[in-house]
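Entry for flavin-adenine dinucleotide complex. Fields follow.
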Amino acid sequence: MPDAVTLSVDGVSVTMPGGSMVSAAVLKSGITSFRRSVTNEARGPLCGMGICFECRVTIDGEDHRRSCQTVCQSGMDVRTVKNSSNTGRLGTIRVKSRQESDVVVVGAGPAGLAAAYRAAQGGMRTIVVDENPNSGGQIWRSEEQKPTSKEAIAWFEKIRSVNIQFLAGASVFQQSDGRKLLAETPEGVCELSYSDLILATGARERFLPFPGWTLPNVMGAGGLQAIVKTGLPIEGKKLVIAGSGPLLLAVSGYLRGLGADVLLIAEQASPARLARFGVSLLKQSGKAAQALALKRQLKGVRYLMGCWPIAAHGDEELTSVSLQQGTRTWQVSCDYLACGFHLVPNLELAQLLGCKTRNGCVQVSEFQETSVSNIFSVGESTGIGGLELSLIEGEIAGLAVSGNRNEARKLFTLREKQQRFAKILNRTFDLRDELKTLVASNTILCRCEDVTFDRVRAFHSWRAAKLQTRCGMGPCQGRICGSAVEFLLGWQTESVRPPVLPVRLESLVMK
Ligand SMILES: Cc1cc2nc3c(=O)[nH]c(=O)nc-3n(C[C@H](O)[C@H](O)[C@H](O)COP(=O)(O)OP(=O)(O)OC[C@H]3O[C@@H](n4cnc5c(N)ncnc54)[C@H](O)[C@@H]3O)c2cc1C
Ligand code: FES
C-alpha cells in the first residue's frame, strides 16, 4: 500500500494516507454536501459502513459509487453533486468468475474471521467475502496492518496462520441456485458455491429521525468513527456524541485519543439503568477493565444520562445541536453530531435465504445453525452482544462445519455467560418512549426518497406506506427508515427481495 495518494475532488487536488476512503478525502477537502436528495437537500455520509447510500459520488465518470466503501487511488477523479458530469453511466462488468469451496463466510468482522479460522484449521476450503475492501468488520476495520488491541493482534495472527481465501469489496446480493450465492465485485459478478454457508453480516446503528438529522455532518457515532478510521482528520473538531449504547463511549474515547474536542456525551438511558449496568460490568473482569480504561480516557468529558438531541441546526451543514435533559433544553455549537441509538442486526441476507428470525434476530441452534440446514449465522446478526460473544459464536460455527462438534461444545458455557451479559446490555439501552416524540410531522423519515413522517403515519402498515409514498424503496432499501419505523410506529418491516443490495443492471441480467 502506498504511504500517500493524491486524487482530485471536484477538481482540487487532495493528498491522503494510503488506504484512506474517498468519503474521508471529500470531507478533508472541505466539502460536506456529497449529493442532493430528491427534494434538493444537501446530504453527506451518515453510517460510514455502506448502509445508508448518502455518501454517493461520481468516481472516474461512474455515478452512484459509495465513497465510504471505495479506497482512494492516485489520479482518481471524484465529483460530488455540484460538479458531477451526471452521465448516468453504469459500471462495466468485465468478467464473471466462479469460486468453489467447502465453506463460504459472508462478513469479515470478528465473528466471520473466527468462523473462517476454525473452518480452515479443520481442513475446509474456506472463502471469506466482505463488501468492504478491508477486513475486520466495524470494530477492527483498517486495523489488519496495524492492530491496536490485543484481541485484534491475536486474531489477525491466527488468520494469517491458516489458508483462507478473501474476496474483498464483494457484496453478496442474491442466491443464484441451491448452495450458490452471487457477489458483485469491481471486476464483475462472482458465483460462490458452498457446502456450508456461515452468515456473519453484523449489525448497524439505529438512527432516529429528529428535526435537522439529515444535515451534512450529522452522522452515526460508529459512522463518524469509521470515516475517521479511514482517513478523516478530526483533531481539534468539536463533537457532540449522542444516542444510546456503549458504542458512544468507545467512539468518544477513540476520537478524543486523536485530539477531537468531545464537548459532551448524551445518553438516553436513565441513571438508574446505567447504575445497574455498572454493577453487572463489575462481575465481568475483562469488561470492567475496559470500562475503567475508557473512564480514564474520557476524564473531564461530561456524560449526561437521560439526555438526548432534539434538533440539529444549520443551513447547508450542521452548526449546532439542541439537547434535552429532563425539563431543561439548551443549544451547543459543534462541528459534528455523532448520533446512534444502539444497534440493530443485519438480517436481510439471512431472510432472503429463508432463515427464520425472531424478535429481530436470526434464530439459531446450539451449533449456530439456522432453520435452513447448512446455513449458519454468527455474531451480531443473531443478536447484539459485543465482541466476545461474536468471536465465540464464530468459533462454534467454524468448528461445527469442520466436524469438530465436541470442541464446539466446550465453548457453550462461555457463550452462555456472554449471552447473559448481552441481555443486560440490551435491557439497559432499550429506548425510552419519549424518543418517539422527537420526530416532527414534517421531519424527513425516509432519507432516500425524502418522505416525511406525516405522510408515512397516515397509513396502517409499512407495506401500505411503501406502496403509496415510496418510503423504504430507495437505495438503502429501508435499512435506515425501517428500523426507525419499527420503533416509532411498532410496524413490522421485515420483508426482503433480491437483490438485497443495489447492484448494477448488468449484474442482474447476466447469465
Ligand atoms: C458502526 C459500528 C461501529 C462499532 N464500533 C465499535 C467499537 O468501536 N468498539 C466496540 O467494542 N464495538 C463496536 N461495534 C460493535 C461491534 O461491531 C460488535 O460488537 C462485533 O464486533 C460485531 O462483529 P460481527 O462480526 O458480528 O459484525 P461486523 O463487525 O459488523 O461485521 C460484519 C461484516 O459483514 C459485512 N457484510 C454484511 N452484509 C454483507 C453482504 N451482503 N455482502 C458482503 N459483506 C457483507 C460487512 O461489510 C461487515 O464487514 C460497532 C458496531 C457498529 C455497527
Ligand atoms: S456513509 Fe457511505 S453508505 Fe452510509
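NOTE: The CA atoms of residues 316 and 387 lie 37 Å apart.
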